[in-house]
Amino acid sequence: MNKWLERSIELAQNKNYLDKLQEIYKLPSNKPRELDKDKWDVVIKNYKKRDNIGLIKSLLELDLFPIKHSFVAYFRRDPSSMSRNPKTVFEVSKILYDLGIEGIKISCKEAKETNRQIGPLFKNYLRDADLNIAKYNHSNFLSTNENALYMGSDDGSKRYAAEKLGYRRNKGLDCFCGSGTTLIASELLGRKWVGIDESKEAIKSAKKKLTL
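Predicted structure:
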């Protein structure tokens, strides 16, 4: 067994495993998102006018759309598709109006989900921590025979995975797929995908949506 895998298993079995993780993932306090005043004024205007397409478009301008709906990602990619899909626009709009303008505002200000911050935090930890191991960029990593950490770019990582590890699949991986919103968006965009979730109910819901 690879020594790094052995050390990972040993660490995971340690009683203070979660405390050790806190040393890496020092998550900031989940403060509510700030709403751009001008953009929010446009949202209120469209809400009062009951302009369904205008409301959705203006909400897509914010950092966070207030509801989780399977086709919102498709509207974000192709706003012109709203005019071609009036039934879906009506469905999304009805949910928004049922929320009310204050409910929409609260949802749009929700703090960023913790699992969305994990990746960058881990990269920062590897960059800044004194791990007593060499850290190399793409070209230097390829030319060394010693143990080292790969510190290349995302594109470099993909290239390394394809050239050195034989991973050539063009699939999006969602390890927290929930009810399948990202997977459905990927399907609609013609992209391959892999979805994982620990909740059996979430998987059941995702499967149901994907077979519609």
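Summary: The mean pLDDT is 82.
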